[in-house]
Amino acid sequence: IDALASPIPGENGTGSQVLLLLRDVTELRRAETIRQEFVANVSHELRTPVAALKSLVETLEEGALEDEEVARDFLARMHVEVDKLAQLIEELLELSRIESGKVELRIHPVNLVEVVRAGAERLRPQAERQGVDLEVTVEQPEILALADPERIQQVVINLVHNAIKFTPPGGRITVRVYSLDREVAVTVQDTGVGIEPELLDRLFERFFKVDRARSAGGTGLGLAIAKHLVLAHRGRIWAESEGMGKGARFTFTLPAVGAA
Ligand code: ADP
């Protein structure tokens, strides 16, 4: 609580009354803490690829440039780091646009089956490269949802991309599209590394990573973006896992057509 007190002169000028102004600042302090944490997180995420780039450039300057094979290898590694920076900046901008309500959703009835299939297909090459089986199963060929198809495809891609990232070769990813009561749902299930049950809710926080080393260059923003997009559709999103080594299951729902 913030208090502002100023004496009000009494009739005889003796300051016998006091005006007190009370203001609840806990909310302000909380916002400030969140802002500070955000800046610290962004700085940390930027620093890692920049440090890697710096050392690669320095080594090139110190002579590695003379050996063409080494130079090419270094360039390829620099490319990876530049891509990481570009992705982080894109995701930060995207998150800020969504959070400030600047993303306009074009919601209309869409066949969710098509949206999900198209999203999953875009990642099939990556799943194959990793030796992970990717399967899409649908209850019916047409399941209508009220959605912005581009944004929902982005959510699907995000979940499938994570599933691939956290599933070792030989594993399997199953994407299901089905109807619920007044909603429709998409589930992305994998046989990968799994998540400790007590961390499940935190996955959707900005920058949250279960294991920094394991997340292999991820930004920790993907699920925060997915959550905002799903909530903006009046849908729900959550994660389930029986524990480490037992795979993970992410589900999101959207309003069914006619369920206004
Ligand atoms: P990242 O860019 O790190 O993947 P996300 O926001 O997409 O960021 O995910 C946050 C964290 O949630 C990941 O770093 C990882 O620890 C965990 N996670 C997400 N998807 C899965 C999954 N399918 N299996 C296990 N862990 C996952």
UniProtKB/TrEMBL annotation:
Boundaries of every Histidine kinase domain copy: 41-258
Localization per Swiss-Prot or TrEMBL: Cell membrane
Coiled-coil stretches noted in the UniProt entry, renumbered to this chain: none
Cellular component terms (Gene Ontology): plasma membrane
GO biological process, one term: osmosensory signaling via phosphorelay pathway
Keyword set includes ATP-binding: yes
One of the record's GO molecular function terms: phosphorelay response regulator activity
Keywords annotated in UniProt: ATP-binding, Cell membrane, Kinase, Membrane, Nucleotide-binding, Phosphoprotein, Transferase, Transmembrane, Transmembrane helix, Two-component regulatory system
Domain PAC: 1-37
The protein's name in its UniProt record: histidine kinase
Section covered of the full-length record: 334 to 593 of 593
Highest rank taxon of the organism: Bacteria
Keyword Acyltransferase part of the UniProt annotation: no
